[in-house]
Q: What sequence folds into this?
């Protein structure tokens, strides 16, 4: 396993970080967190047209650039560092991945170019009131009527579901779990934004009342593709969490250098030194777990990916939360204030910790996949 980055990947990181430094500042994050839409459409278009982020890992025949998962992981690490407010995770890690993994070439040709160009904001609607991310948790039903498929039921905790142009919906038919595409303006579709701890990442409840939908792939055969999608998304989320934790550590170290107590910087005190060192150990361990998952994805080893994804998500979720909390501790009183950005990272960490299932759930998956 080679976890070193190529010159092209290092350059990609520089380009993405430079872009986000200009267009995802703390002021931008606070402004968009308070905005009901949760993102800036102008910046979203520039992400697609100037540096091709939405289509980075989409094959060239569908309008993308055809890069690999390690390259995509670099981008997610940087978006996590910047706390990017945009429907990037929902569109790229969930929706695009689902389309790439489902058995429907026609759907890929129809839907992926819009995602790659930045014209389509997309998401995956999978979880319901039970909050489960497994096959048994899917209860929304689909029935085939004269004129096409119709959906009835509700999904919740849908990332960027309040504004998505395209919703990929997991539903239950007589044949099993099936996947459907629903237009954001479809009749019978009702979307309600949900209050969230992390205001930088919007969620919605989506209700379907005899809503027309397009079947993607064979009926009843969608769960294996969805399971592979969730594994890939878990790895990409882990990369994002590493980026966020890295930013929190940088903030803690910088503050420890300039904050003085008793005539000396607090970074010279043993307790602060140990806390920062522990934060670094957590991050480097998380980084290894996330990068291992990206390597497995690029290698195309599904068994190894499934194991690496569960391990990465179980570890990186808790590592980000711990580091974000320790950052507040290093800052002391000011770290608890609304004006300081430390709380933004802690909220993102806590939200991400349960986004694709709690760490305990991923540990159960890991044990099952290892045959323990």
A:
């Amino acid at each position: 396993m080679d976890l070193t980055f190529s010159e092209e990947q290092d350059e990609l990181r520089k380009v993405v970080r430079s872009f986000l430094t200009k267009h995802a500042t703390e002021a931008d994050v606070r402004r968009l967190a308070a905005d009901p839409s949760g993102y800036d459409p102008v910046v979203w278009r520039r992400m697609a047209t100037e540096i091709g982020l939405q289509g980075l890992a989409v094959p060239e025949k569908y309008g993308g650039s055809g890069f690999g998962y390690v390259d995509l992981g670099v981008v997610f690490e940087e978006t996590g560092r910047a706390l990017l407010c945009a429907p990037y995770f929902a569109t790229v890690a969930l929706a695009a991945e689902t389309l790439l993994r489902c058995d429907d070439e026609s759907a890929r040709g129809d839907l992926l170019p819009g995602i790659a160009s930045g014209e389509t904001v997309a998401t995956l609607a999978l979880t319901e009131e039970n909050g489960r991310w497994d096959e048994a948790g899917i209860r929304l039903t689909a029935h085939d009527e004269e004129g096409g498929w119709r959906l009835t039921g509700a999904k919740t905790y849908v990332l960027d579901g309040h504004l998505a142009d395209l919703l990929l919906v997991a539903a239950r038919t007589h044949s099993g779990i099936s996947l459907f595409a629903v237009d954001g303006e479809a009749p019978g579709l009702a979307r309600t934004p949900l209050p969230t701890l992390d205001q930088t990442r919007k969620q919605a409840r989506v209700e379907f009342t005899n809503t027309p939908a397009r079947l993607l792939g064979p009926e009843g055969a969608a769960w294996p593709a969805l399971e592979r999608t969730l594994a890939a998304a878990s790895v990409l989320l882990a990369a994002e969490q590493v980026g966020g934790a890295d930013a929190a550590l940088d903030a803690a170290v910088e503050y420890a250098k300039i904050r003085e107590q008793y005539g000396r910087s607090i970074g010279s005190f043993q307790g602060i030194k140990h806390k920062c060192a522990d934060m670094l150990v957590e991050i480097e361990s998380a980084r290894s777990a996330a990068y291992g998952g990206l390597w497995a994805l690029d290698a195309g080893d599904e068994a190894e990916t499934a194991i690496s994804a569960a391990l990465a998500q179980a570890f990186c979720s808790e590592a980000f939360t711990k580091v974000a909390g320790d950052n507040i501790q290093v800052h002391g009183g000011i770290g608890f204030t609304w004006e300081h950005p430390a709380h933004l990272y802690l909220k993102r960490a806590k939200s991400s910790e349960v986004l694709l299932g709690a760490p305990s759930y991923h540990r159960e998956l890991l044990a099952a996949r290892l045959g323990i």
